[in-house]
Amino acid sequence: MLRLHELSWGSKRLSKEFGCTRNTVRRYLRDGGAAPFKQPARRSAFDGLDDWLRAVRQEKSTPIIAALDPWLREKLGLISQKTKLAEAIRYTLALARPDTLP
Asked: How far is residue 15's CA from residue 27's CA, in Å, rounded to a whole number?
């Protein structure tokens, strides 16, 4: 398209030839070729609240996990350590430690 534009093809003729709008042709010529797609930064309702959310989650989950801790440790001793269930129990027990929260 750039080469044809250099040969004096107008944006109207280029748009007909390539089957796209004139605005698309103009943008392509202005950018000097195809511009890479830039995904817009999307804001979330929770932006900036990471520390607060982590503190609330820890505050609410720690007593529950502490209450389940003896039962989970008992069950962990009864099952094979290579299973997904054992992995999930170990992960849950690790959540009781504040330094391991994701």
From this structure: 12
